[in-house]
Every structure is written in structure tokens, then in C-alpha cells.
Amino acid sequence: MRSPRRRLTALTSVAAGMTLTLTACGGGSIAEETEANEERAAEFGDCGDINMAINPWVGYEASAYVVGHVAEETLGCKVTYKDLKEDVAWQGFGTGDVDVVIEDWGHPDLEKKFFAEQGDGSAMDGGPNGNVGVIGWYVPPWLAEEHPEVLDWENLNDFAEEFATSETGDKGQFLGADPSYVQFDEAIISNLGLDFEVVFSGSEAASITAFQQAEKNKEFLIGYFYEPQWLFAELPLAKVALPPFEEGCQDDPAEVDCDYPETVLKKILSTSWVEEGGPGVELVQNFEWTNEDQNQVAKYISEDGMSPEDAAALWVEENPDKVEAWLPQ
Amino acid sequence: MTIMSERVEETAVDEREPALSVRNLWKIFGPRADKIIGTPDADLPRAELKRKTGCVAGVKDVSFDVAPGEVFVVMGLSGSGKSTLVRCLTRLIEPTAGTIRMDGVDVTTASEAELRDLRRKQVSMVFQHFGLLPHRQVIDNVAYGLEIRGVGKKERRAKAAEIVSLVGLDGFEHSYPDQLSGGMQQRVGLARALAGDPDILLFDEPFSALDPLIRRDMQNEVIRLHRELGKTMVFITHDLQEALKLGDRILIMRDGEIVQIGAPDEVVGAPADDYVRDFVSEVPRSHVLTLKWVMRAPRPDDSMDGPVMSCDTIVRQAAKAALASEHPVRVVDSQERVIGIVDDDAILRVVVAEEDHA
Amino acid sequence: MSTLAPPRPGAARPDKSPPVEVKRWVPSSRWAWALGVVVLWVVIWALTKGNDTLALAGRERTGVHDALAEFRDSVIASRADNPLIQLTYEIGSWFTSVVDWLQRMVSVENFPRPVPEIGWLGVTAVAVWIGLAVAGWRIALLVAASFLSFGIFGYWSDAVDLLIVTFVAVAIAVLVGMPLAVLMGTGNRAVNAVMTTILDVFQTIPTFVFLAPIALFFGIGASGAVVATLLYALPPIIRVAGHGIRTVSATTIEATDSAGQTRWQRLTKVQLPMARKTIVVGLNQTTLAALSMATIAAFVDGPGLGQPVLDFLKTVNVGGAFVPGALIVVIAVMLDRTTTAASEYGERAARGGVDRKRRRIMLAVAGVPVLVCLYLSRTYSWAAEFGDSTWGPRLADAVNEFFGWFTDTFRDLTQGFKDAISTVLLNPLESLLAESPWWLAAGALLLLAFVLGGFRAAVPTLVCVAGLLYFGLWNHAMITLTMTLVGTVLVMALALVFGVWMARSPKVDLALRPLLDAGQTIPPFVYLIPVLALFGPTRFTAIVAGVVYAAPVAIKLVADGVKAVSPTTLEATRSTGSTTWQEVTKVQLPMARGSLVLAANQGLLYVLAMAVIGGLVGAGGLGYDVVLGFARSEEWGFGAAAGLSIVLLGIMVDRIARGAAQKTSR
Ligand SMILES: Nc1ncnc2c1ncn2[C@@H]1O[C@H](COP(=O)(O)OP(=O)(O)O)[C@@H](O)[C@H]1O
Ligand SMILES: [Mg+2]
Question: Which of C231, C229, C219, C233 is nearest to C94 (CA)?
Fold first, then answer.
């Protein structure tokens, strides 16, 4: 047994030694930074809070953090990011948990519940954010190159067997997507008389992995996908031409036999937050950018591995005039 | 049966009130057991009752009294209902019917608070598997009864220390039960029962789980404590030797029913039926029987010069003197009246019969 | 969706007394009957295949689904003036403020301070000191290493956030759970049966089903996270502590009752202290269950390590998700070892194995550097904020590289394996279950339940089958059942091989245990991508995910069961000169049968618990339905029905397995 006294002395001297060395080496003082923060807060005045929902995809994140960055750094707002799926985010408008959904791909059911026309009016349409969603059937690049015929739906049946997997037997497999997206593929397949069967990937990550592996291993794969999406920077999927969209051809889900329409992505805002007003509200309402802009930031995040904050900051720095246009007058 | 009723009458005439009095006690396990008593079903043998109603008769119509300071032993084979009986006495098992009085208190109708009070102050129990609290030191196990009564820590520890030393556990106060041997653990059990200074001690086969040598020590311990403290004891065992050694009187049970109640020599000398006879057949009779059981009426031709002995003298103790004397022993009762004669033949019959058995 | 049901004490217990003779496995008439039922089923199936399968086309919904959704809508519509919601919201905001306050103290900046009140150095020092105080210096070292790893790998605040949420949820779980455990431990059989069923439901219902409602009732963020975690972490402590209280030695209870104790005294002085060890086990299980909710809680913006895991999933960055995932394992191991050691240490201290005075002095002296660290961490940035380190990204890159290599090398093999299992096992079984007319499959399941487990299995099965039909997802339920059964077969194969191996070789045991612990606690989201890369978005991927999650439990149970086989029996067999193979197959496995049954039962429930994860990787079935319900508001009723169907499936197979085990052990 070691003597307790020895151990005590040892501990005390370690403690004393640590205090000395650590105090000596100093470093940034927290007190100074605190003061600076206080001054900055006083300078900006009250911009208010922005509770920004972050829906789980990179493009969304890009838009949200760019807006958030400008609000924080230029206007001095306090921005809180909240990782939420769409449904939960919309529920949050009524409780003050969420103020902004920056990129919405269309949720008629939620609009019915939360817009003023039919629902409780806790949410409102914030106008388009400038991005346009292109939904459709995609194949990996190698396939488009080696068998350009597959890019026309009329030839798909010739390849059905190649597309078959353990899940579909002798039918071709069509990879359905994350259930967050409204999909009519089962109807399209049957109405166009295609010899395919839908297997739902169930998540965006699963779809992306499937396309990545298909490209790497030169395997046949066709599935539901969409732009803008960071994956296109790494893997430019090719879109398969379906019978073009015409007004009304998707009204009856069972009768759909045409391509998906282009989707104008929009902002959804908390009504009470908008009513309160302020520079933050104006900024969000003014915000609009292009698919290329978003893809740029998304690439910073996904390919270059930057944090969303850093990616947004970089883009804002590179595009001062675009940002200028969003600022409140 | 006849012996039993005779006995009950006898104690009933005892002027002191019994310490414990049990009348027509029933315990039937199973659904709607109370509906069975009083119907013909109640008289069915256990197995048949079980088959017919699904109920098990643990205790069937048992009555007895225990005098203050008496050691009353209940004996029977495993499954005969001993544990059930003794648990009914403090309503650890709720009796189905019958009355129990303890020091004048009617246990069967006692409210929950009264019952708790009774258990705290009047009766304590020692269990076969000790039932100690593994997370407490010996001293705190012993003090448990005092603790739940609300006795202060200092006082109860002092009292417990006294008792610990009374049962010979000095130096083990601060050990934990799992650090003690079985015998020592049961000493703790004993101490715990004594700590509350109860009037009645109940023992449910306390030494059955112990090695033979330790068991003997513990039996002697109980005898010593009984001598020193003079408590009333109800002692359950399946071991006849133990019963004979400790008991002032013995109740023999079979299938929940009383077969015989009597002093040790009565049980050995006049077994009520084959069940009891079988039980006692292996007993060294000379160690148990008194001269009362081997004497014969004096005949005119008997020599009246032999030694005089009390009728309660155990045969073995009398043997040496009896055999040494040329004259038969004269047996006298408590009033010094000669009530019989014991000759060498009588003594030898008892002793030799044992040899044959062995 | 880690539904981590802890092994249920008493669900099926291994035979205690080793039989003197080695029992031969004689197929009883029961199994012959069961085989008969299956044969009959196959014959009728061949004739009727494809009719009345109750498959729903596309996104078809039934009235029940719409009714569920309508109910949800009416709750949402009434939320402004629904007193219940006001109350729960009040509770939720209370949770939020507690968590928020703790966060500002130790993990996020407390504006206008650029850092929390107490920085990493101070928090680590205090944690180490606590470790030292409750469990000794070894644990203190473990705590130090764990806390430093949070910072070194770049997830200081997320890790501390997770600890905060876990702490709050577990504290409430104990407050709420212990009274219920007492009720369960002291209540009669009816109380027990009811509570067990409720707990079963809580533990099998997929969290995604009630995530949105929780957010509705309690709010988003810390409050929703605490409540979701709490609901899931509550059952283990109730179950295990209740079991502990119930199994306190009856003699001791009787002995102390005979001393005239009140009920309260019995509880506080006898039952609770004597059940202490089991209660600590329950607490441990509860803590682990709480941690397994980390990623799920992140879906409602719950603070913690789940957030970075989900973030990296967006860019399918396996290595990136691995680092925070591994830190969850670090936390789990740290808390597990600490509570266990603290319980032992406490006992030792109570028994005088620890010199109290010396200990007090030592703690006081150790307090000095802690105070210094606290001061430093409040004053200097370097002691408050962990500097940037490249360890995290470097580890992530290494993991990515490894998985890249692994996938490239083994993908052909794994694809072949997947195709083989799909053709040989999965497709035929799915065809039998899902393509049978519903009346055939239902009838066959009922008959099997009756033949194997008697009425005790058949009655719950009848209720569950009726429920499945009511919820209108019969076909998907059969598809999920198929995957669950195939997964269980694979789990048991692994459990037999590794369990026996571990039981026979202490070295293997020592090496595998930590891996199994990790497999049980690492969020499935971390390994989904590699599994997807190897097997594609298929049913088999879902099965593999379920197997990864369920195998550790089953392996441990089998290992412990085989280890518990009496050495005397084993010695006796050896003395007759049997080979190792004979020893294993004729003695160890038959004698550990109870554990095997329990392992299969638990394995099955664990695989089923991963059904929702399966839905995320292309498996379809009920899992996909639940994901769909969570993703699209209009499909919530559909998702809820699917979630309830999973519960019914779980209860059904559990009761059949238990019934069969009970009959077998008789
Ligand atoms: N709780 C119970 N429920 C049903 N039967 C019981 C119960 N306790 C005891 N018995 C039955 O009552 C009979 C007497 O048991 P017991 O009093 O323990 O006998 P002993 O102590 O003489 O061995 C036995 O047949 C036993 O099976
Ligand atoms: Mg007994």
C-alpha cells in the first residue's frame, strides 16, 4: 500500500504546478470577448430572432445558411437553426418554434392545415426562392453514355431484364425515392405499359448510394431523382425523357402517364413572425437565387467538406452584389 | 384423538391462562376456500379434495393450548402443514377459519395495527432459511425489530449488542450475513427474534438446514436460552430426536390434521396410531421412556426393599441402580405413594429391544 | 430506430438445476403437429396463391388510416385551446429551460460570453472528480479519456449536449419509473400482465410514429427530445427494477413481516435495498436505451451527437457519421462502466472496504486542481473552447477509405450472398406468407400458435391477427414478418457460432464483448450507408441492419447460457471421451436450451425493431409505411397504422415464442 500522504503531496504539487504554467501561458481572455460581444449587440439594435428550420438535404442547408449568415453578420439578428423534417417544421409555425422554411417542394396537405384559406393560418406563402426543382427519372452517367437509348422511355422495356434485381425477379427495377417526395411512378409505369416494378429506396441517402454504386460498378439503375442536388456535381445523372408534362395530366394520381412538372420552390413563413416585421423578415422575403448559386454552396458542403456556416460565408464573400439586393432598404 | 381431547381438558383446568390458545383452526389454499369448511368436502382426504376442488388443505381443524413458559413442539413429515400452522399463528398466512388467542388478544380479529403491535412486541419468529437482510450488518439485523418500532439508533444498538453477546456472537457485530457460517447466521436469526423481548418465540424448522454437529449446538443453545429467559416457545421440526429433546409436549401432524398431542414419553410409550408408531420406532426408548411406562402393578410377592424412584425418572437413568439392586425398584408418584414396581426384566426389555433395532 | 428492448427477465429462464443425465432432443408430438400445419399450409397455398392477399395498391388507404389522420388533424386544430396540450406544452417548455440552462453552463456560449460559463477543462475536471468520488481512480481515468475524446474529435458541445439530454431524461425516468416499478414488483398478477403489455407496446412501437405527435404536444428541440427519449427509456427501469423487487427473497420478507413492519418499512428497508443490484442494472438499461434515442431525437432538433450523424447522412459521408456515432458508443461505455463500478464501490464502501477518512482527504485534495481548472476554464479561451483538431476529419477519412476499399473488394461476394439468400430463403418464405390468401395465413399462424404454445399463445395471436386485419396492412405485415424471420435465422446462426466460441474461450470473449457493446449502441444510421453499398437498396440490406443490431444481444445470451452449463456435467462428458463437437452439440447446447430460446425471442424482437430502419433502405413493408407516415403529413394515419401493426407483430411472435418455450421447459 502506498502512503496516502505521499499521494496527497503529489496531487497538491501537480495542482500548484498546473496553476502556474497555465496562468503564465495566458491566451485569449474571455472577459475581453464578452465585452466585444456586448458592444456589438448594442450597435446593431434589435433585429430580432429568426428560427430557421433545416430540412434534411444539402441544397436546403445551403439556402438556409446563406440567409442566416447575412442576417447574423450584416443585420445582427439572432439566428437559430433547427434540424427538422418538413412535417414537424410546419407544426412549429403555430408555436413560435419555427419562423422560416426556406425551400419547400410542395405540401398541399400541410398548406391545407396551416395556411389561412383552409387551416389555422399559422403559416403563409413567402414567395419563390428562385430555385426550380426538376423531378424525373434518372440514370447513372455511364449508362447514358453506353446505351443512350435508355434516355427515351419508349426503349426502356428493351432493357427491363438488365434492370432486374433480386427484389423484382424478371421485371426491371425502378428505384422509388425518399417518401418525402410525391411520386407517381407506379402509375406512370403501368399507364405507359412498362415492364418495371417500383422498389422504394426509402431515403435520399439510399438513393444516392445506389446511384454511386451503379456508376462505380457499371450497373443498370433507373430511379426517381431531382435537381438541384449536390450529387450532380460528382455524378451528373442523365434524365430520361417521359411523355412531356401537360397541365392536368397529373391531377388523378391513378391516371398519371406523363413527366413531372418543374417545381418552383418557395419559402414558407410564420404568419405571426412576418406580422412582427423587422429587417430579418424583409431579408427572408427578398431572398432569391438560382440553382447554380445553390449548387455552388452545396458543393462547398458536400464535396469540399466545409461546414455549412463556412460554405455560406465563402459564397456571401464571393457574391456581394447578389447579397446586396436582398438587404432591407 | 382421545389423548388429544384429554390433554386439552387437562390444560383447560390449569388455572393460569394459556400463553397461546388455538381453536378449530383451518387453512385451505385455493379459490373460494372458505366455502369448503362445513361441507362434507372438508372431511375428504387431501388428495381427493385437491382433485375435486383444486384446493389444498394445509391445516385442518386444529386446536391446542400452550402454557406460559412451555416448549411446544409441532412435528410431522414435510408437507404435513407445520409451516402453515405456525404462520397462521401471527397471520403471516391468513387462516381460513378458527380462532387464535395470544396473551388474551384475539389474533384472528385483530386490526392491521393491532396485529403489527402484536408482532412487534409479543411474538417473534425464527425461520429455516434465516431470512436475514444481506445489506445490513449483524447488529443492524438484530436491531431491525426495534428499528421499525421507532427505537432510537443508539438505544437499539445497545440492546442489540447485548443480545448478540447473549447468543454468543461477540466480535461479529459488524460482519455481514454472507460472511458468517450457517450456524452463526441462525444465531443472528435467534438474536433478532429475542431482541424485541417477546413473550412467545416461534421456530419454523430453524436447524434443518444446518450440519448435525452445529444443529446439536444450536439445540443446546435453545435449551440454555429457555432456561435463562423462560420464554414460551412453539417449535416446528420434522426431526423426532429434536422434538423429544426440546419439547415439553409434542403435537404430531399428518396431512394438516393433529394425530397426537402429548409429552415425549407419551408419544413414544403410547403412539396414537401406526403413523406415530412408525415415527417413534427408531427412537432409543430408554432415553425417553420414564419408569411410569415400564412399571407394573406391585404384586404381593414383590420385595419392597428395592430403591425408591420417581415415576418420571427416565429408564436409562434408572437402569444402573435398578440392575445393581437385587430388589426391584419401587416407583412412587409425586405424593410419594408407591404406584408400581420395575424389575430387571422390565428394564432389560426396553434396553435390549433397542439393541435389536440397531 | 434503435428499439433496444432489454432482455426480459423471466421471459424464459434457462433451466437452473442441471439434469444429471443429458437430455436427448426428442421431437415431441408438438413439433410433428407444427410440421403438419406447415405442410397443409403449403398445399393450400399452392392452390390459392395470389388471391385475397389484401395488398394495397400504391398509396391506397383504408378508412382506419383516414380516421387516425383525422384524429391527429383535430388535435392539431384544437391545439390553441386544448388544455391537455397547454399542459404538456408547459411541461415541455420547462424541460427546454432546464436543458437550455445546463447547455449555457457547460456546452454552448452563454451570450454575451463567447463560451459557456464553464469550459471544457472545468467540465472535464468536475466529471473526473465525480468519477473518482463515486467509483475510484480507474473510472476517473475512463471519464477523463472519454471527455477528452469528445473535444479531440471535435464534438465537445454535441457530446455534452447528449449527456445533458440523457441526464435529464434518465432522471425523470427514475422519478416516474421507480414508483411504477414498485407497483409492478408488489402488485398482483393482473397488474403485472397489464403493465407488461403496456411496456411491450412502448418498446416495440416505432419512434417515428410518435415523433411528430410529441413535437406537437411538447414542442420542438430539447423538450421533444427529452420526451421521446424518456418514453423509450422508461420501460427498462420499470421492467427490470420491478422484477428485482418482485424476486426479493420471500423468506426475508416473511421474516421481517413477522417483526411487525409496515408496508412502507418493508419497501424502503427490505425490498428496495435488497433489489439494489437489479435496480442498478435497470438504470443501466435505461441509460443505454436513452442513448440509443440520440439520433431519433435529432429528427425533432434534439441537441446532441445525433445531429452530426444525421448531417453526414445528407452527404452520405460514412466516415463523417462514424466519428460522432463512435462517440455515442464512448458515452455508453463510460456511463455503463461508471454506474456499475459506482454500485460496487458503494457496496464496498458500506462494508468498510474503503478507508473513509483517507478517501475524504483525498477527494478534498483532488478538489484543488478541479477548482483551478474551473477558474481557468472561466477565464481563458484555450481552457473554455477546445481548439481545432484534425483528429476527427482524419479518422473520418480513414474510415471512408476503409469502407471504400471494403466495398470494392467484397461487393461481388456480398451481392452473390444476397442473391442466394433471397432466392433460397427470402422469396419462398415471402411468397408463402404474403401471397397466401389472408385467411390461410391467419389460420395457419393461429394453428401454429396453438400447437406450439397452447391457448396462452393462441389467444394473444388471435387478438393480434384481428388487429392486423383491422389496421388494413396485412400484406405489408406479412412481408415484414418474412424479413424478421429470415433475420432471426441469421442472428441465431451467428449467435450459435460466436456464442459457443465465446463460452469456450475466455480470450475470444474478452475480445468480442466490447465489439458487441459497440454494435448495440452505435446508431444504425452510421452503418446503413456501407451496408447499402454492399447490398443495394433491398430487403436484404434491411435484414443485415437488423442482424447487426440484434446479433450482439443474442450472442451474449447464448454465450452466457452455454457458460452456465454445469462444469460437473461437462467433466462427466469429457471423461467418457467425447469429441469437442459432441461436447457442444450433445451437452452444451441442449443444456443451454433456455438461453437459446431467450436469444431467439430477443433476436426476433430486435430484428423487428429495425423494421423502420429497413424502410429507409429499400425494404418496403411496414417499415416503409412508417417512414412514409412520418415524411408526409397526409399519410400519418397510414404510418400510425403501420406502427401499430409492428407492435402487434412483435407481441404476437413474442407470445408464441414464450408459449412454446414454456411448454418446452415443462
Ligand atoms: N401458498 C400455498 N398455496 C397452495 N398450497 C400450499 C401453499 N403453501 C403450502 N401449501 C401446501 O400446504 C401443505 C402444507 O405445507 P407446509 O405447511 O409448508 O408443510 P410443512 O411445513 O409441514 O412441510 C403442502 O401440501 C403444501 O403444498
Ligand atoms: Mg415447512
Answer: C219
Task: Give the pLDDT score at C10.
Answer: 38
Which of A37, A108, A120 lies at the smallest CB-CB distance from C77?
A120
Residue C156 to chain B, least CA–CA distance (Å): 40
Greater confidence (B113 vs C585) lies with B113
Closest residue by Cα to atom 18, ligand 1, is B83
Instruction: List subunits contacting chain A, requiring 3 or more Cβ pairs under 8 Å.
Output: C
Q: Please tell me the residue having the least CA distance from ligand 1 atom 16.
A: B81
Give the range of the structural domain holding residue C571, as residue numbers without chain letter: 410-665
Task: Render pLDDT for A101-114 as a digit per residue (tens, 0 to 9).
Answer: 999 998 888 998 89
A45-131+264-324 and A134-262 have identical folds: yes
ipTM, two decimals: 0.85
Q: Which atom of ligand 1 is nearest to the CA of B58?
A: 12
The minimum-distance atom of ligand 1 relative to the CA of B82 is 22
Contact C260, B148 (CB under 8 A): yes
Q: Give just the sign of the alpha carbon dihedral A134, A135, A137, A141.
A: positive
Beta carbons of A293 and A322 less than 8 angstroms apart: yes
Q: Which CATH superfamily is domain A45-131+264-324 in?
A: Periplasmic binding protein-like II (3.40.190.10)
Q: What are A290's three cell numbers? A: 438560382
Of B172, B193, B214, which residue is a domain's last? B193
Ligand 1 atom closest to the Cα of residue B77 is 22
- List beta partners, residue A80: A51
pLDDT in tens, C320-347: 999 999 999 999 999 999 998 998 888 8
Range with the lowest mean pLDDT among B320-334, C89-103, C385-399? B320-334
**C376 contacts in chain A (CB < 8 Å):** 22-23
Amino acid symbol at C360: R
CB of residue B82 inside a 6 A radius of ligand 1: yes
Give the whole-angstrom CA distance, residue A206 versus residue A224. 12
Q: Is B96 in the pocket of ligand 1 (CB under 6 A)?
A: no
Taking an 8 Å cut-off on Cβ atoms, the answer to whether C411 and A37 are in contact is no
Predicted pLDDT of residue A305: 86
- The whole-number pLDDT of residue A287 equals 95
Terminal Cα distance for chain B, rounded = 31
Q: How far is CA A253 from CA A107, A289, C29, C60, C651, in A?
A: 15, 32, 53, 11, 36
Last residue of a domain, one of B152, B171, B193: B193
**Structural domain range at position B241:** 2-122+198-283
B271 Rama class: left (phi>0) / alpha (psi -120 to 50) / beta: beta
CB B131 less than 6 A from any atom of ligand 1: no
Query: How many angstroms separate the CA of residue C326 from the nearest CA in chain B?
Result: 38
Q: How confident is the model at residue C352 (pLDDT cuts 50, 70, 90)?
A: confident
pLDDT at position B357 = 52
Together in a domain, B232 and B166: no
Res. A9 pLDDT band, cuts 50 70 90: low
Q: Name which CATH class applies to A134-262.
A: alpha beta
Concatenate the DSSP letters of all residues of B161-230 into one string. Answer: HHHHHHTT-TT-TT--GGGS-HHHHHHHHHHHHHHT--SEEEEESTTTTS-HHHHHHHHHHHHHHHHHH-
Cβ separation of C254 and B124 shorter than 8 Å? no
Q: Determine whether the shortest distance from the Cβ of B81 to ligand 1 is under 6 A.
A: yes
> Nearest ligand, CA of residue B75?
1
The C-alpha atoms of residue C587 and residue C584 are separated, in whole angstroms, by 6
Q: Is C352 on the interface with B (CB under 8 A)?
A: yes
Question: Are B162 and B108 in the same domain?
Answer: no
Give the three cell numbers for residue B269.
410409550
Which of B118, B148, B176, B201 is the best residue to mutate to test the C interface, defined by the most C CB atoms within 10 Å of its own CB? B148
Cα(B218) to ligand 2 centroid in Å equals 19
> How many structural domains compose chain B?
3
